[in-house]
Design a protein that fits this description.
7-stranded mixed β-sheet; two-stranded antiparallel ribbon; globular; alpha/beta; Rossmann fold; 304 residues
Length: 304
């Protein structure tokens, strides 16, 4: 009887050990298969995820992508803004588009330094620099702005990841699943994004045009950054333009709207692109959005 009782006690512990190990093996195999389907530069960067610059304008715009993405998310909006007369730099945050061994070394400070360095570089030749950021990039930019460390002249946010939506989360809220996973999943676990782009106007991109495999610690960085946001007062020294989709299954529109309502800033404006989904830079009406941006940026003194 004692042996059976011991078995009942040890069985759940064995499952908690074996299942994550099996998951690691499966994810490694899926990553290897995906990795063979994409092409990389000699430096190891996904060919579609390289930083891009557009135009030759007097003033500059820095475009920052989101989680599991890259500069190519701006591939329609960036050229349109360059045609309006701006110099546009769509940057790639460190780690994204790179092999897993590089991603595993990335810290939040690497992303922040990349943003600050690009703005500082552009200021040498451009009197004014504005930041435009999507999703996770928008969360990082918001935290930096509210901390007074974003050395830009204006901030445009697209669907900022201030809180992850639980709409696609079974049984529990997404943060609860994150807490469970942080306890039971191995530190070196690769997590695959099982959801496609939440796009409502354009077709979702295939996984061969995204960066869907992420080490567990990058999720830790993501939730740390959202916690840092929650600990800050809603105050920005920069004018803020917030753009939200009509429906977002990735991040919480409601949290962004509450933040905007409380926000103290030199100037702020909210625009809702009703037909769009979370991937706003690809889902917006490019001509209309670029026109709206020029009007607002002009108001901030950031002329083409």
């Amino acid at each position: 009887m004692k042996g059976k009782s011991l078995f009942r006690i040890l069985r759940p512990l064995a499952l908690l050990t074996i299942l994550p190990l099996c998951s690691c093996a499966i994810m490694n195999a899926r990553y290897d298969k995906w990795n063979k389907s994409v092409t990389r530069t000699p430096e190891g960067i996904l060919t579609f995820s390289q930083a891009q610059t557009y135009g030759e304008g007097k003033n500059a715009l820095v475009l920052i992508h989101g989680f599991g993405d890259g500069p190519h998310v701006w591939k329609t909006l960036a050229p349109a803004l360059a045609e309006k007369g701006y110099y546009v730099s769509a940057i790639r945050l460190p780690g994204w588009g790179e092999p897993l061994d590089v991603k595993r070394q990335i810290e939040i400070e690497d992303w922040e330094n990349c943003i600050r360095n690009e703005i500082g570089h552009l200021r040498k030749d451009h009197p004014h620099v504005a930041v435009m950021a999507h999703s996770m990039g928008a969360c990082i930019s918001t935290v930096m702005a509210q901390a007074g460390t974003l050395n830009a002249d204006a901030l445009v946010l697209y669907a900022p990841m201030l809180e992850v939506s639980s709409e696609r989360s079974p049984l529990f809220k997404t943060r609860t699943w994150y807490k469970i996973g942080s306890k039971i999943l191995p530190r070196n676990m690769i997590i695959e994004s099982v959801f496609p782009d939440h796009a409502r106007v354009n077709a979702p991109r295939p996984k061969t045009e995204r960066d869907p495999f992420t080490p567990k610690q990058i999720y830790d960085h993501l939730y740390t950054e959202m916690d840092r946001f929650e600990a800050q007062p809603a105050q920005s020294p920069l004018p803020v333009r917030l753009v939200l989709p009509g429906k977002d299954r990735v991040v919480s529109n409601e949290r962004s709207q509450r933040w905007f309502n409380d926000l103290e800033a030199p100037d702020k404006i909210l625009f809702i692109e009703e037909p769009a989904g979370h991937v706003l830079p690809l889902d917006v009406d490019v001509l209309a959005e670029s026109d709206r941006l020029v009007v607002w940026l002009n108001k901030q003194g950031i002329t083409p």
